[in-house]
Amino acid sequence: MAAIFRPSANLAAKVVLLGMAALLAGGTGWWLVWPRTDWSRRVGWVIDQPVPFSHEHHVAGLGIDCRFCHTSVEVSSNAGMPPTYTCMTCHSQIWTNAELLAPVRESLAQGRPIAWNVVNDIPQYVYFNHSIHIAKGVGCASCHGSVDRMALTYKASSFTMQFCLNCHRDPGPNLRPKEAIYDTEWHRTADTPSPAALMQQYGVPNRDLTDCSICHR
Amino acid sequence: MQPVVDPQETAGSMTDRVCAIALRERAFLWWWLLMIPSAALSGLLVAAVFWLFYAGVGIWGIDWPVMWGLAILNYVWWIGIASGGTFISAMFFLVRVEWRTSINRIAESMTLFAAACAGIYPILHLGRPWFFYWLFPYPNTMTLWPQFRSPLFWDFCAIFAYVLSSILFWYLGAMPDMASMRDRATRRGQQIFYGVLAMGFRGTAREWRDFRAAYAVLAAIMAPMVCSVHSIVGLDFAGAQTTGWHSTEFPPFFVFGAVLSGFGMVLFLILPLRRLLRLESFITARHMEVLARLLLTSSLCLAYAYIMDAFNAFYTGDVSERIFFHDRISGVYAGVYWWTLFLNIVVPQLLWWRRLRLNQPLVWLVGLAVIVGMWLERYGIVVVSLHRTKLPSAWGNYAASFWDWATLAGTVGLFFTGMLLVVRLVPILSMFEMRELLANARRQG
Question: Is residue B288 part of a domain?
Answer without folding.
Answer: yes
